[in-house]
Amino acid sequence: MAFLGSQKLIELITNEKVILPNPDTKRVKGGAYELSLGNEAFTTDSKDKRKEIFSNNGLVTINPGQFALLLTYEEVDIPLSKIAFISIKAGVKLRGLVNVSGFHVDPGFKGNLVFSVYNAGTSPISLEVCGEPYFLIWFAELQLATGETTVYNGDHKNQKSIPPKYIDALIAGELASPVVLSRKIEDNYKAADNKIGILNKEIDNKIDKHEKEIDNRLNKHEKEVDNRLDKYEKDIEGKISLLEKEQTAKDYLVKTAVGLGVIILMKIIFDYFAYDNGVKKGAEFKQMELKSQMAIEKLRIQERAILIEIDSLRKYRDSAFRNKGL
């Protein structure tokens, strides 16, 4: 298999019309033909997730971490005796655009080419529609055995636009490119910072509220302690006053008891002396009383004797009257 040189390629595109429409021989460089971007493209971050139609000289922008499907402006018609190879120009590659589609075109294929690309760079890449060339195609001789023929019956035969199935494949799931992941990480950091900020505010508010509650409780407790101390001091003063009164009463009782003791002692002494004098006088009085009782007893005896004598005289008189019949 040998690649066609620039001159052979010019002859091929001139004689067999493998590049349509209106091939420009000035675009043959280094054995390759330079292809331009057509007016149809799809990017994975498009708003409505559909392919877009651009006007001439419009711009297709591929953001970092995004895929794109790009349709070439030129249509190619690969001879059955040839096989083609495709790539992206180095100037675009160095900006971070990577070709992730196939790298060859089958013999017999006819239609517009679709490049599947990915922006692996850190900046958006903008491509001009129907303007500056961005793609390359090489042709090589296909050596066939005697009697061997090739026929292209692939899905891309007569391809004129971007197939919807490739768009569906790119929007079916979430992209996990480094740029997208980096953005998600940054978004997560921002969300985490916001949540941390909110939590810090909530914590500060709770701390302030808790400190205020503690201050209120401390103030309330201090007031209660002060009130208790005041009450305790008053109770102590009252008890001291009561003790002083009790002590005064005790002192009064002691003094009174001492006074009473002195009075009782004096009375005992007085009674003792009175008793001593009384005993002596009582003995004398007792003797006088005994003498009086003896005298009275004698008088009573005399009285009884007189009464007996009177009674005897009465009996004698009564007896005398009875004898005389009176």
Description:
The structure is a single chain. The chain is of the alpha+beta class. The chain folds into two domains: 6-173, Deoxyuridine triphosphatase (dUTPase) (Deoxyuridine 5'-Triphosphate Nucleotidohydrolase, Chain A, Distorted Sandwich), CATH 2.70.40.10; 176-289. The protein has helices at 6-15, 90-93, 164-171, 178-324; strands at 19-20, 28-29, 32-43, 52-53, 59-62, 67-77, 82-88, 97-99, 104-105, 110-119, 125-128, 133-141. The strands form two sheets. Strands 1, 2, 3, 4, 6, 7, 8, 9, 10 and 12 form a ten-stranded antiparallel β-sheet that branches. The chain has a two-stranded antiparallel sheet with strand order 5-11. The longest helix has 147 residues, at 178-324. The protein is rod-shaped and about 230 Å long. The termini are far apart. 15% of the residues are buried. The mean pLDDT is 84.
- Biggest beta sheet attributes: 10 strands, antiparallel
- The second-level CATH architecture of the largest domain is Distorted Sandwich
Order of helices and strands: HEEEEEEEHEEEEEHH
* Form type: rod-shaped
Question: What's the quick description here?
Answer:
This protein has four helices and twelve strands. By secondary structure, the protein is of the alpha+beta class. The chain has two domains: 6-173, Deoxyuridine triphosphatase (dUTPase) (Deoxyuridine 5'-Triphosphate Nucleotidohydrolase, Chain A); 176-289.
